Amino acid sequence: MDAPSAAAVLHPYWPRDLLIPSYVANDRSMSEILVFLFSVSGIFLLVTWLITGSRGATGGLGTWRRLAVCWFAVCGFIHGVIEGWFSLYYDVIPGDQSFLSQLWKEYSKGDSRYVIADNFTVCMETVTAWLWGPFSFWAVFAFLTNKPYRFVLQLIISLGQLYGAVLYFFTEHRDGYSHSELGHPVYFWFYFVFMNALWVIIPLSLIVDAWRRLSAAQTHTDNTETHKYKTS
């Protein structure tokens, strides 16, 4: 009776008694996976930074605005490709050796909900992949072409990202942080806390920015209409 129990915990995830019968260990190292993730993200960031610096037709984007557009480009990649993969293949990831499946198995050391097809995680990531992924690329296009709705997109995307991140942290908090090795410097603090806190801090700042921009535009519209009314 002890052999099946021992075999049941031959995985790196928490809680240690989690049953993942289809699990196959990665043959890619942590460094290979992280280098891929940050290299591709860096390429998206660099290319977008160069493009935003050469778009004279937009009237010139400031440093803060260029960084915001770079953020949306990276989000488009992460949401659309990385999280898109999870939304399509979440049920086979534990035993799959495709590179992106191995990426998710590595990340799951910080949150094992991703290798057990947790209902909340699947639903949240599916919405993120198929809404905020395309919307992020749309936002990049909108800022590059100076579309009047660009800050509306910024507000919508950032609200969605913030809402998803808050629910992500709060649901795990209510579970007692049982899906990670609490306090582990890499798996808990870097994978689970830091990498997801970005989707709280940055969207929150972009919400405030969009709020100010849209409020200023509405104030200008109100003042213009008042002036027209007084002069008519």
Structure in words:
This protein is 70% helix and 0% strand. It has 232 residues and is mainly α. α2 (30-52) crosses α3, α3 packs antiparallel against α5 and α6 (150-174) runs antiparallel to α7 (187-231). The N and C termini lie far apart (90 Å). The relative contact order is 0.10.
Q: Layout of SSEs?
A:
Blueprint lengths: L1 H7 L21 H23 L10 H27 L9 H9 L11 H26 L5 H25 L12 H45 L1
Give a short summary of the structure.
The protein is mostly helical.
Descriptive key words:
232 residues
Gap from first CA to last CA = 90 Å
Helix count, DSSP H or I runs of 4 or more residues:
7
Radius of gyration (Å): 21 Å
User: So what's the overall shape?
Assistant: elongated
Uncertain segments: 1-6
Largest sheet: none
Class by helix and strand content? mainly alpha
* SSE topology string: HHHHHHH
How much strand? under 5%
Average pLDDT, rounded to a whole number, is 91
- Assign a percent range to the helix content: 55-70%
Number of strands: 0
